[in-house]
Amino acid sequence: MDSHEVVKNIYLLVIVTLLSVLQNVFFAQKVERECKSQRSQASTFERVSCANRNCMDAYPTFLAVMWCAGVCLNQAPAAFAGIIYLLVRQKYFIGYLGHTSQCTPGYLFGKRIISFLSLMCIVGIFNYLLLRFYGSDYKEYVQTITGAASALLLIP
């Protein structure tokens, strides 16, 4: 398999990963700005710092399940779920700067997206095992279902 073929199978995941890196840079700059601001209150810095830390805690899990789901099953729904996760994480971060009750919907929605991606991983691995040991490949059916189910992520 040449490198062009490999990139064709993962380019959406790469784009979402790069967007997530840019988002992390934005979060870090926000923390730095609050740290350097003379008129900033300690509580504002604590909120920004805590929101950034919470986002960073979930980041490795998000990347792992998104890539696993994309490689093992289908990159399009995994990348779509990744984009939605980034939007939700942005909402969580901004909500955390206000009242902490404003960040709860973003947090819960983010958990739902990670659960969806985890389920995609499990189904993709299970399908691979079925193909490997029994010769049954249900990947087309599962890809159709996950493609349709990814649209359900938009329902709050």
TrEMBL record:
<dbReference type="Pfam" id="PF01124">
    <property type="entry name" value="MAPEG"/>
</dbReference>
<keyword id="KW-0812">Transmembrane</keyword>
<dbReference type="GO" id="GO:0008047">
    <property type="term" value="F:enzyme activator activity"/>
</dbReference>
<dbReference type="GO" id="GO:0005789">
    <property type="term" value="C:endoplasmic reticulum membrane"/>
</dbReference>
<keyword id="KW-0434">Leukotriene biosynthesis</keyword>
<feature type="transmembrane region" description="Helical">
    <location>
        <begin position="113"/>
        <end position="131"/>
    </location>
</feature>
<dbReference type="InterPro" id="IPR001129">
    <property type="entry name" value="Membr-assoc_MAPEG"/>
</dbReference>
<dbReference type="GO" id="GO:0031965">
    <property type="term" value="C:nuclear membrane"/>
</dbReference>
<keyword id="KW-1133">Transmembrane helix</keyword>
<dbReference type="GO" id="GO:0019370">
    <property type="term" value="P:leukotriene biosynthetic process"/>
</dbReference>
<comment type="subunit">
    <text>Homotrimer. Interacts with LTC4S and ALOX5.</text>
</comment>
<feature type="transmembrane region" description="Helical">
    <location>
        <begin position="62"/>
        <end position="88"/>
    </location>
</feature>
<dbReference type="InterPro" id="IPR001446">
    <property type="entry name" value="5_LipOase_AP"/>
</dbReference>
<dbReference type="GO" id="GO:0004602">
    <property type="term" value="F:glutathione peroxidase activity"/>
</dbReference>
<feature type="transmembrane region" description="Helical">
    <location>
        <begin position="6"/>
        <end position="27"/>
    </location>
</feature>
<dbReference type="InterPro" id="IPR050997">
    <property type="entry name" value="MAPEG"/>
</dbReference>
<comment type="function">
    <text>Required for leukotriene biosynthesis by ALOX5 (5-lipoxygenase). Anchors ALOX5 to the membrane. Binds arachidonic acid, and could play an essential role in the transfer of arachidonic acid to ALOX5. Binds to MK-886, a compound that blocks the biosynthesis of leukotrienes.</text>
</comment>
<protein>
    <recommendedName>
        <fullName>Arachidonate 5-lipoxygenase-activating protein</fullName>
    </recommendedName>
</protein>
<keyword id="KW-0539">Nucleus</keyword>
<dbReference type="GO" id="GO:0004364">
    <property type="term" value="F:glutathione transferase activity"/>
</dbReference>
<keyword id="KW-0472">Membrane</keyword>
<keyword id="KW-0256">Endoplasmic reticulum</keyword>
<dbReference type="InterPro" id="IPR023352">
    <property type="entry name" value="MAPEG-like_dom_sf"/>
</dbReference>
<dbReference type="GO" id="GO:0001525">
    <property type="term" value="P:angiogenesis"/>
</dbReference>
<dbReference type="GO" id="GO:0004464">
    <property type="term" value="F:leukotriene-C4 synthase activity"/>
</dbReference>
